[in-house]
Amino acid sequence: MNHQKHFISRLYQFFYHFINKFEALLLVVSVLLMAANNIANVIGRVIFQESLFFTEELNSILIILITFAGSSYASRHARHIKMTALFDLMSPFYQKIVIIIISLLTAVVMWMMCYFAIDYINWIAPKGKVLPAMQIPVYLTYLWVPASLFLTGLEYLLTAIKNIIHHELYLSSCIKGDIYD
Questions:
Q1: What is the mean pLDDT of residues 9-23?
Q2: Rg, Å, the chain Cα set
Q3: Assigned domain for 170 exists
Q4: Rounded distance, CA 65 to CA 14, Å?
Q5: Which domain holds residue 33?
Q6: Which of 90, 69, 70, 85 is nearest to 169 (CA)?
Q7: Given 64, 89, 148, 162, which is the most exposed site by the fewest CB atoms within 10 A?
Q8: Is the model's pLDDT at 37 over the cut of 70?
Q9: What mean pLDDT value characterizes the chain?
Q10: Domain annotation covers residue 96
Q11: Half-sphere exposure of 68 (CA within 13 A, CB side)
Q12: What is residue 128's DSSP assignment?
């Protein structure tokens, strides 16, 4: 049984590390690509009086990617928005209960949104719409949305489980600490 527990723990750590590195790389590359795209477009417009024809579409794709990959990454690193006005008035026992409830509710909402995102992609894919300039099928630009929502929901579920199992307060599945950290 101990060997099984160790294997599951190692598998989780591998998955957690892989997703962290992948999302961090994706975010860095996306932000740099967006900056380079905008700079190139401005230079083209000012110097050559010619804009890049794909700038708006590429930036739209990158904004979707950065927003949703960023939400998953932020939840994993406990860097999401924290509202603590009522939370501050509670005893540590009730704070822990509130964090568990909020984490579970957030996981459910993320998974519901994931379901709706998949449903939307399944609805839009057969229509065959493509981006006018880049000729990329529109549904492909949304594929990161359900993946990110699923991972965000998973992180909140794991945070709730961590808070149920352990005495310490966990802000995410691997970050424990005070709400103000």
A1: 90
A2: 20
A3: no
A4: 23
A5: 2-165
A6: 90
A7: 89
A8: yes
A9: 91
A10: yes
A11: 21
A12: T
At 15, which amino acid appears? F
Asked if 131 and 173 count as a contact pair (C-beta separation under 8 A), the reply is no
Domain count within the chain: 1
Closest to 110 measured CA to CA, from 64, 153, 154, 160 = 153
Q: Give alpha helix (H) positions in the chain.
A: 2-48, 55-76, 92-124, 144-165
Burial class, 131, CB count within 10 angstroms (exposed 0-12 / middle 13-18 / buried 19+): middle
pLDDT (mean) for 18-32: 95
The label of the residue with tokens 């424990």 reads 176
Which residue type is seen at 167? H
Q: How far is CA 145 from each of CA 72, 130, 152, rounded to the nearest angstrom?
A: 10, 18, 10
Domain assignment present for 117:
yes
Q: What is the pTM of this model?
A: 0.88
Q: CB-based contacts of 157: which residues, under 8 Å, 6+ apart? A: 103, 104, 107
Give the confidence band of 179 by pLDDT, cuts at 50, 70, 90.
Answer: low
- Quickly state the pLDDT bin for 57 (edges 50, 70, 90): very high
Reading the block at residue 56, the tokens are 């708006």
Q: Is 23 domain-assigned?
A: yes
